[in-house]
């Protein structure tokens, strides 16, 4: 029996016994190399807004603050994403990660995984109590979209310290091939709360039900806005303006409406479109080449959109690590593979 087939059989047997613990047991990761700042990187030791013993970088205005969710199911993607961010950064030591984990998750295990792969990384893990949002979640077209942790991006302003004024939010199923500092430096202007690539050629009306558009009051939501679709997996957010405008409450109001009257089908995205559609700062499409995971039903292979690429995003049902493990990768999954730090049991024994 080949070593590859034996590994498949071991993995399958563990998953059949206990799918949750199997994820934790099997997924061990290699240590990433340490990355250093270039000579012209700004110092962040003297610009912190923190007045306590917190390490200066966690409140630094010059640091690049990155927020991501963290869970056992997507930890492999998260580790690859972090590696890609550090590898392509001119100032990797000026990046701080803010990870959000569900209160029901094994936060200490997740923290240990990140620490072992990135011993020099500045990061914190914040516990997200999902009870407040769980009561507002309605079923969507794909069960994976109903995970409460998907809604954590709506609560970053509450979870992260008040001294963190701006953050780049990233999904776990992506990699960067450019310097994240360029994205973080996006000019939001004086009034924009968030920035993201917009896709105005998409059929915006399809993101909401006929009940929404036929309602004389709800249909006026976008009357004074040129609303376009944007993907919430890559966003630059002004947390100070978010807090001032109480935008979490605005999103929750639309989720409560959804519980009373079905106005959309697609998880955590539509509330963002309802609140921010037509009001965001557009970002070049190169910063979210999304949809590489195919649609929400079959996850078929897709090509890149025309134009330059700074970030590849496997949004949709198909994830590169799952397709690679199944021996049925899409051509673009080969671009994700070099950032995969997964260590097989055989590699651990060698």
UniProtKB/TrEMBL annotation:
Keywords: Glycosyltransferase, Signal, Signal-anchor, Transferase, Transmembrane. The keyword Transmembrane applies. It is an enzyme of class 2 (transferase). Its main location: membrane. The keyword Repeat does not apply. Residues 1-22 form the signal peptide. Pathway: Glycan metabolism; pectin biosynthesis. It is found in: Endomembrane system; Membrane. Its EC number is 2.4.1.-. Gene3D superfamilies: Spore Coat Polysaccharide Biosynthesis Protein SpsA, Chain A (3.90.550.10). It is a single-pass membrane protein; Single-pass type II membrane protein. Belongs to the glycosyltransferase 8 family. This is Hexosyltransferase. It comes from Camelina sativa (False flax).
């Amino acid at each position: 029996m080949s070593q590859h087939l034996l590994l498949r059989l071991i993995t399958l047997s563990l998953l059949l016994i206990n799918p949750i613990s199997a994820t934790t047991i099997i997924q061990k990761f290699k240590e990433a190399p340490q990355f250093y700042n270039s000579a012209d990187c700004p110092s962040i030791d003297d610009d912190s807004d923190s007045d306590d013993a917190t390490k200066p970088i966690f409140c630094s205005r010059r640091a690049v603050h990155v927020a991501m969710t963290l869970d056992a199911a997507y930890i492999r993607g998260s580790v690859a994403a972090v590696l890609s961010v550090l590898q392509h950064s001119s100032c990797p030591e000026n990046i701080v990660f803010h990870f959000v984990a569900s209160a029901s998750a094994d936060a200490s295990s997740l923290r240990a995984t990140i620490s072992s792969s990135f011993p020099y990384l500045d990061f914190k893990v914040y516990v997200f109590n999902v009870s407040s949002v769980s009561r507002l979640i309605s079923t969507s077209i794909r069960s994976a979209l109903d995970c409460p942790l998907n809604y954590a991006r709506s609560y970053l302003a509450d979870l992260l310290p008040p001294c963190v004024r701006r953050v780049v939010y990233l999904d776990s199923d992506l990699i960067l091939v450019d310097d994240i500092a360029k994205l973080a430096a996006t000019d939001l202007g004086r009034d924009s709360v968030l920035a993201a690539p917009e896709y105005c050629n998409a059929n915006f009306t399809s993101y909401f039900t006929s009940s929404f558009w036929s309602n004389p009051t709800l249909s006026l939501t976008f009357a004074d806005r040129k609303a376009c679709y944007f993907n919430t997996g890559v966003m630059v957010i002004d947390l100070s303006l978010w807090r001032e405008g109480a935008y979490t409450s605005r999103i929750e109001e639309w989720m409560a409406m959804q519980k009373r009257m079905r106005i959309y089908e697609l998880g955590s995205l539509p509330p963002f479109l309802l609140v921010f559609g037509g009001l965001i700062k557009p970002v070049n499409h190169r910063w979210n080449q999304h949809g590489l995971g195919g649609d929400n039903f079959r996850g078929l292979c897709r090509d890149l959109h025309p134009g330059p690429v700074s970030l590849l995003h496997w949004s949709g049902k198909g994830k590169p690590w799952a397709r690679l493990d199944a021996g049925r990768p899409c051509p673009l999954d080969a671009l994700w593979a070099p950032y995969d730090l997964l260590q097989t049991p055989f590699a651990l024994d060698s």
